[in-house]
Design goal:
The chain is mainly α. The chain has 16 helices and six strands. Bound molecules: acetyl coenzyme *A (ACO). Acetyl coenzyme *A binds at residues 30, 236-239, 241, 271-278, 317, 321, 324, 326, 329-331.
Amino acid sequence: MWPLSFSGQGEIYHEGRVRAVVPPSRASKGLEDVVIGETRISYVGGATGELDYRGFDVRTLVPGVPYESIVHLLLWGEPPSEDPSPEVVRALGEARAPPATAERVADALPRETPPLEALRTILSSLGDGRAEYPPDLPQGFALIARTPVLLARFVRRSHGLAPVPPRTDLSHAANYLWMLTGEEPSAERMRALEGYLGLLADHGMNASTFALRVAISTQSDLVSAATAALATLKGPLHGGAPSRVSDMLDAIGSPETAEAWIAERLARHERLFGFGHRAYKTEDPRGVVLHRMARSVADPERFRLAEEVEKVALEALRRARPGARLYTNVEFYSAVVLEAVGLPRTLFTPTFAVARTVGWVAHALEQASDNRLLRPEVEYVGPPSGRTWPRPVDRV
Ligand code: ACO
């Protein structure tokens, strides 16, 4: 029989007597409010609903500033001399053609592999052991440029279609859509995708960026760290939410059924995707811009449904979790915008990764520029030391 019991008050009992008292926990569950370092890349104002890239409010950048110029700003800290950044256009164009080994990996994956899982393997294959720590800008541009190229190649193959070669005369966003469809995107779709990529490019110490910084802090290479970041982005509490928002809108079906559907879900203590955020206890500024973008690009009926679901969900969440300060997060209208861009749901989170790669690169460079191993502590709350193995141990 298990000889120890725990009182729940920190006391540990053995044979009816208190044997140890564990002091109150020092643990910060979820690392909430724990500051792990300094950054000059982006500022997240959770209480005020602000997001700045290098001092520029994203709401003043998107829509309008090309993604290449946002990449320039995030990587070099200053805006380019003109838009789109000539340096970034050149660097991404030169790095766009991936190595043949990575193409072979993309082509060898089973067709039915979901694109997110495929991208994780493909990203990993970009790390061939030649580009070691510390990360540098050429490695960063290669990662940013090749992620959508290889993803699109895999998606074409998985549909039994021949890959479309990348073009250097198209922007990052337009080339991604071109390689997926073999058609030049309309200006409207292109602008919507470009706005989405710009808004999602960086976001403080989010979970995937944290995973990347932990990996870089061990002096691991950029591709390995980005693979860790992508694995972290996958979860529905982080980047895996937008396809679930679309599923939720489908399941609700019409504005009239929203209230009952949401009430039932909350009664089962299930979460509503696209709501709540660890940092924002007010409106997510990216969500505000995406909402406006969705109004102009989405199918009007879909947009009306989304707005009604949002309204009903916010009211229901305020009733069900009065103290929680839950608002619409970036993923809610991301889903509506990405639908309007024409992407399938399986590409929502991979496209988030396409947007965030620049943030990961910027953070990898920043971490490496003043590195210290990220290695937190954990509080041990298991049985006290001094237990003996229940049978004789042969030590010879
Ligand atoms: N639906 C219902 N209840 C919610 C939601 C939600 N979307 N979000 C939070 N709550 C509730 C929690 O159940 C909790 O209530 P309880 O204390 O009664 O259990 C309370 O609000 C506080 O929630 P936490 O989990 O402590 O908040 P946390 O900061 O850890 O989580 C998170 C933030 C993970 C985003 C959460 O709000 C959530 O799960 N949202 C739904 C998934 C989602 O939209 N993910 C995308 C996030 S955006 C991004 O990462 C790019």
